[in-house]
Amino acid sequence: MTMLLLRRLAESLALNAGMLAMMVLVMGLGLGEKMAERFLPVYLMALGATPLWVGGLNALNNLLNALYAFPGGALSDRLGYKKALIVFTLLAMFGYLLVILIPRWQAVFAGSVFFISWTAISLPAIMSLVSKRVKANKRTTGVTVHSFVRRIPMALGPILGGWAIARYGEVPGIRIAFGIAFVMCCAFSTSSDESGRHNRP
């Protein structure tokens, strides 16, 4: 009885293996992204950046959010959504490594180019996943599920990042947050490799 109810719930929410993988991706990487990026201005100031550079980071974030969807869509069309998501994840990992290994505001600014707009650059690939993994009459539901799931890390990420700062201080706490984001990227890359052997796009 319970299994039947769960199966019906999964069907009504358009949940299948591809959608569940997308949810794990969005929640895992999104949590790391939001936990780190919400405190980038604090981190820049702690490392000696001037308010002008902090304002420049916000301008850069808005610009990349607008522009990254174009290369994100082109790469998804060329490589397929699965490989494109792995590429975007590896780029984010490179940015996180810059911030973790080089605690200088210049490195933080440079590294942010690779991860601060991960949501924007990955959105076309995720929409491609929804369109290919979900039945035609359930695709709107699939998009709705994605919109709901991606707000969970938006709410939890800043709280966890704030806790890390309160617990360990500004610079160590934010570096820990970036470290957690990096681990989440590694976990997704590994799980994508495994799922790709059983579930081709």
Describe the 3D structure.
The chain is mostly helical and 201 residues long. It has one domain: Growth Hormone, Chain: A. The chain is built from 11 helices and no strands. Helix 2 runs parallel beside helix 10 (151-168), helix 6 runs antiparallel to helix 8 (118-133) and helix 6 packs antiparallel against helix 11 (170-198). The protein is globular, with a radius of gyration of 18 Å. Residues 197-201 have low confidence and may be disordered.
Provide the helix percentage.
Answer: over 70%
Order of helices and strands: HHHHHHHHHHH
Radius of gyration: 18 Å
> Quick one: overall form?
globular
The third-level CATH topology is Growth Hormone, Chain: A
N-end to C-end Cα span: 32 Å
The CATH homologous superfamily is termed MFS general substrate transporter like domains
Features:
Growth Hormone, Chain: A; 201 residues; globular; mainly alpha; 11 helices
Secondary-structure topology with pairs:
Blueprint: H1 2-12, H2 17-37, H3 40-46, H4 51-67, H5 69-79, H6 81-101, H7 105-115, H8 118-133, H9 139-149, H10 151-168, H11 170-198
Helix pairs in contact: 2-8, 2-9, 2-10, 2-11, 3-4, 5-6, 5-8, 6-7, 6-8, 6-11, 10-11
